[in-house]
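Weekly sync, protein design subgroup
Attendees: M.S., D.O., the rotation student, P.L. (late)

Item 1: inverse folding check
M.S. brought a backbone from last month's batch and wanted to see whether the design step gives back something sensible before we order anything. D.O. pointed out we never logged the input encoding, so this time it goes straight into the notes. Structure tokens as presented (273 positions):
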């Protein structure tokens, strides 16, 4: 008999990844997918494999995780992303701790695979995520981008890692970063970020690359590690370019509207063409 665990996946356009994720969750009594307006086959694939799909769209990752909390029926909750995988060893370890009820919250180490390589440096090492909760211990999730759980009780760190298959291509990386960089830029703008200059962009991007590639020794992961550090630097630049956009007065959208208005007026004067 399966332990009463609800696995929760927050997904948007994850048709390429969600099937294999679901196949590693057969030990859970219930699988709940919170689908954020997917335009591909994410929801259909999840339902075909027995998951219950709830449609809910919101820019806040915390709000989506909290929405799942309302619908989950299990006594225990396991939050997992579509690009993460549970090994049989990890599943057994989770079940043992649930059955012994040693702690109401479990923390997992993640092994991160990016650009086809296991990353052990560059900030990817010492990656821990708190994802398994006794339902009555989890209060809520907070945070707009890097959401974190608020809970009651002790935390136990497990030995077996959760596999994270991220940054599978540059295209996939850019698509995902487009969402979170926009949100982070909006938060920085609302917080009153200083006016962005060209040197701001150089400093932010350069320091992010240097931190990951040199300070955190990303170079030890080879060319893939250096590429990943560079990609993270580009992401920082992208965030601050979008902050710069938001700081423009009048807004960029109004400038284009004004240009279209001028063009319409021009065409009215040249009716004879």
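Designed sequence read out in the meeting:
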């Amino acid at each position: 008999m399966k332990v009463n665990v609800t696995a929760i996946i927050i997904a948007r356009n994850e048709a390429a990844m969600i099937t294999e994720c679901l196949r590693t969750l057969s030990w859970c009594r219930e699988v709940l997918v919170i689908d954020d307006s997917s335009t591909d086959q994410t929801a259909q694939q999840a339902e075909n494999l027995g998951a219950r799909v709830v449609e809910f769209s919101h820019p806040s990752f915390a709000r989506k995780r909290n929405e799942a909390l309302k619908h989950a029926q299990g006594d225990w909750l396991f939050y997992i992303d579509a690009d993460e995988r549970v090994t049989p060893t990890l599943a057994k370890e989770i079940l043992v701790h649930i059955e012994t009820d040693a702690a109401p919250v479990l923390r997992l180490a993640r092994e991160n695979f990016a650009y086809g390589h296991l990353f052990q440096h560059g900030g990817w090492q010492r990656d821990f995520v708190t994802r398994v909760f006794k339902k009555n211990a989890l209060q809520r999730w907070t945070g707009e981008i890097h959401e974190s759980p608020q809970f009651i009780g002790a935390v136990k760190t497990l030995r077996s890692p959760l596999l994270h298959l991220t940054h599978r291509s540059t295209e996939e990386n850019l698509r995902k970063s487009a969402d979170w960089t926009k949100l982070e830029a909006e938060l920085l703008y609302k917080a009153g970020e200083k006016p962005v200059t060209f040197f701001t962009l150089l400093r932010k991007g350069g320091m992010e690359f240097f931190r990951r590639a040199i300070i955190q020794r990303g170079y030890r992961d080879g060319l893939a590690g250096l590429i990943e550090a560079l990609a993270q630097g580009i992401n920082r630049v992208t965030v601050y370019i979008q902050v710069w956009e938001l700081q423009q007065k009048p807004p960029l959208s109004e400038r284009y509207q004004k240009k279209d208005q001028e063009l319409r007026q021009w065409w009215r004067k040249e009716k004879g063409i």
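Discussion: The chain has a mean pLDDT of 94. The chain has two domains: 5-166, 170-257.
Action: P.L. to compare against the previous round before Friday.
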